[in-house]
Design brief:
alpha/beta; 5-stranded parallel sheet; 5 strands; Ribose 5-phosphate Isomerase B, Chain: A; about 40% helix; single chain
Amino acid sequence: MTKLAIACDHGGYALKEKIKQEFSGLDWLDLGTDSDESVDYPAFGKAMGEAITNGDAPRGIVICGSGIGISIAANRFPAVRAALCTSVEMAELSRQHNNANVLALGARITDEETAMACVRAFLATEFEGGRHERRVSQL
């Protein structure tokens, strides 16, 4: 993977920075936010949607307090398949069966160790294609 986009609101800022540090070998496209000062998550979901749509990055990670709002915002873009994952199994299945291209995390919901494991699984797992291709093409 050449580039990975990442975006968050204030609730996800600390986790975003920890992910970038943990996976420092990746080429990050950081779409913000740049502090824990209050911001509106839809703007950062939109930034991710535009980055995926424009081909600035093939995959991304979005983070807010619950992961729900920012994933809804990102999923408003047809090119985005954002999956809110709270376990490694969900992250793997989102890639294997749904060809998810954006991992959504809830910084207030998922502990740091689990979040890092989800990122690892999301990055390492390939789309299985086959019978899943037909279903994904209907999205």
